[in-house]
Amino acid sequence: MGSQSRMVSQNLIVRLGARKVSAIVLALSLSLFAAGCKKKAPAPPPPPPPPAKEKPAPVVERPNITQFEAEPGTIEKGQASTLRWAVSGQANNISIAPGIGSVDASGNRQVYPAATTTYTLTATGPGGTSTSTATVRVTNPPVPPAPTPAVAARTLADILKSDVQDAFFDYDKSDIREDARAVLTRNADVLKSVLSQFPNAVVIVEGHADERGSAEYNLGLSDRRATAAKEFLVQLGVPADRLKPVSYGKERPQCTESNEGCWQKNRRAHFEAGQ
Amino acid sequence: MTKKTSSLFPILAIAAIVLSAQSNKMVIDMIGKAGKGTIAIPDFRGAAEAQQYMGTFNSVLWSEIEGSGLFNMAPKTMYPLQVPQTPQDFKPPQPQAAPVRRNAPAPAPTAKAPWLTDWSGPPVNATYLAFGYTAVKDNQLVLFGWFYNVTQNDISNAQAIGKRYFGSIDDKGARKIAQEFAADILKSVGASSLAGTKIVFVSQRTGTKEIWTMDYDGSNQKQLTSYRSISTMPSVSPDGTKVAFTSFVRGTPEILLHSLETGRRLPFYNQAASMNAQVDFTPDGKSVVFSSTAAGGYAQIYRANINGSGLQRLTNVRKVEVEPKVNPKTGNEIVFVSGRSGPQQIFKMSIDGADIVQLTPGEGQASNPSWHPDGQHIAFAWTRGFEPGNFNIFIMDVATREVVQLTHGAGRNENPTWAPDGKHIAFSSRHGSSTQIYSMLADGTDIKPLTTQGQNNMPVWSK
User: How close is the nearest chain A Cα to the Cα of B284, in Å?
Assistant: First the structure.
């Protein structure tokens, strides 16, 4: 039993590492406490000589803490450590602090300290009081890995970018062309589903024009394109209050060359995630 | 794109083909180049320390007068050797009869001293002479400036201006007194000066389109807005104190109103609409017209109070209608751009939306109407004779529909705006990928670049 409390002391010294100086002080005080019932070599240097038992003078001995340890001594935050203890001799009050209170003469208890904690077992009997401590070191768990992309939900912008296509227009026109009908019909299905998936979102219907008309006229023309695209989608059941037309005229071309291929790319209704 | 024939507009078509700008009577009358005559402006000299600023002074004075387009500039190489600096330098040619003025109405140029005929006769053949000098006095640069009609027979009748001008003792001060003197010269022959006028414009030099201001000659360029969005299509109130423009700062295009004096934003109520844009002011400054989708459907022309309240719809057609501009002289009619006949054309209606007539004949695309201060002419951009998008600047007599072409395909020329003098036009021109602002006389000559940095367009010339 003496070797067990020495083991605790040694453990403490090892575990406290950097705080070695204070650990030594602690170990010495433990030895002093133990001195009443047994003789013990000081902790630091080599293996101690076998404990030489001495008969103490008093008739009633203090309670003898034969075991008090934490297993494991180091845990990650959130995990459990088990305190085990055993007290022999006469003791009418045995308690563990902090947070546990009165306990039986022997037993074990799982603890979940949030930070490194030193538990103190106090056993009080007619012969006096004995104490012993056990420390649970708590380390922070490593940062969890980033969630895998496959699992992450696609944003509204992602869905619009991949599943919703631009509707294109003829020069100086805002009528929905045959090819735009097909595109907008497909878009309507996607938009209905995506808008129920994002109940607070609004989709911006951008209207654009090519560079040839005046900036002023193109603003009106592309407003009309955005509105025409919106009206077509609403007819197919997309909620009107979730589509917001915005006219950009020729302010935000996606292509800046001066040829028909480029102009056609800019005569469009385009869909973006709104607020 | 449909190409309507001009058969419905025979007068317009013939006039437009036959007339070139410089020889056109409409333009000649407008800029008044016909009758003002030749002016001589010898270099002024400065007394002592004032001399170091005379380089600036002389070049500014010369370019202000030349840039007015009103005068023929008599070349300096032809000037007499003896240049007067004060009226006292003129000595009537009769040496004996000093106090007598009227005994010999047409004196022969026998004396060596300067006389009016040195300037009115060959080889200078000037009608006008500006002369004088500068000096530093009481911590100011002072110009003693005279402006004479040298065709007069005697000094007392010749003088049109004899005045002092004060500026700081630096190049800025020299510039100021030169501009003020030039303004007085122009005023004395019945013309107004551009000095002091401003041009509001759109510049992208900071990365986003913002509203900027500059002086009429391109100097003193200053950023007015910093929305870091799209701020474009400005217009200026008739008193020159407010600017209204189209802003995307809250998503959809809407109208913002700012003070040009403080730069601060003023209240303007925007209709709930996908688009409120392209404002213009009525001449009394109390109301605005603009293009809006307030009723849904197509952008249409509306009128409202200066703060956006009291909305009144002016047009009602299922075609795009934009760019309303109120006649600045009468306030009772509006020109605007509409797609109601096909490709965008310029129309006119009364201030309440009645009596809509088409002004441009349907050929090509027409845009950017801008009223001349006389309320009888407009400048506009038109693609006639070119591919869609290749605009040139034209002016039109609104009553006769006679048009004159001012630019001829050198780049894309748009957004003409009249100077308050009614003789100059600022416009934007795109060459390659660079769009800059230029000024020119209303006959298409004397083209001067006003901007160089970044992309600049949509000038509005204000008081």
Answer: 25
